[in-house]
Amino acid sequence: MSAVSGILLVGGASERFGSPKALARFRGESLAERAWRLLHEVCDEVLAVGKTGDALELPFAILDDESEQRAPVHGLIAGLRAAANDVCIVLPVDCPLVTGEALRALAGAIAVPQTGPLPGAYSKQMLPDLEAHVARGELSLRGVNPIVLELDENLLLNVNTRTELMTAAVADWAREREEVRALLVVGSQARADTPADRWSDLDLIFFIEDPKPYLEDASWVEEFGVPVVTFLEATLYGHWERRVLYETGEDVDFVLFPASISERLETSKGAAELLARG
């Protein structure tokens, strides 16, 4: 693969999130630090683009996008103008599950994924069209790069709330562990038909080879934030869940089932009610 530049879109106020996403913590590092590190693993050059007026405290310099508007297209244009290489991987700061392998695939095809324009790969040759696009008042990036590459959609999640960030962190943690055979997200936060505020319950059901170590030692819940309160509570079939209230306000129930009962749950009316609740 030819030399590639990485463009990190730092973002700004993040009104839905409640604070700048770039500074939010994800498994021991900020989202901005995580994205910056990943781009350095893949790219020959990395630039971070945002608004210097936001004065975010980051361990790297920000290139100002020189626009009064807040739209990714302005960051893309500024990044393409400054990049040393023709092909650029563009990564928004709020996409924490994407992998280096996925970014390399996008760069190799100079493509965007099926889910939308970001993250994606763009060429400096697209600059004139992008600038004309913005001059017409069109800020959407959809259709700018018509080449689409199918990727695992689970890797392309962008987080818009703290609960989505929590869920993404747990998913990232779980996929690193062979003993975790499956993870289900239930509760009111998982239901699209039920409005949920940031205080609503989030239930994460794990099917684990042996839940006992996770019940006896609660230190693993610190992977996802700072717990204020945590305790065990009985659930189906005499099994247990670990309930955690985090300092950022998320009330999370980690339901820990042995992998051996997964078939039993599928045929259980009580389990069906659990999976549907919220």
Can you put this structure into words, describing what you see?
The structure is a single chain. This protein has 278 residues and is of the alpha/beta class. The protein folds into 2 domains: 4-153, Spore Coat Polysaccharide Biosynthesis Protein SpsA, Chain A; 162-276, Beta Polymerase, domain 2. 27% of the residues lie in helices and 25% in strands. The protein has 8 helices and 14 strands. It has helices spanning 31-42, 72-82, 100-109, 127-135, 162-175, 212-216, 262-266, 269-276; strands at 4-9, 25-26, 29-30, 45-50, 63-64, 87-92, 112-113, 120-123, 148-149, 180-186, 201-208, 227-234, 240-246, 251-258. A 5-stranded mixed sheet has the order 5-4-1-6-8, sandwiched between helices. Strands 10-11-14-13-12 form a 5-stranded mixed sheet, sandwiched between helices. A hairpin with a 5-residue loop joins strand 12 (227-234) and strand 13. Helix 1 (31-42) packs across helix 3 and helix 2 packs antiparallel against helix 4 (127-135). The chain is elongated. Residues 190-200 and 274-278 have low confidence and may be disordered.
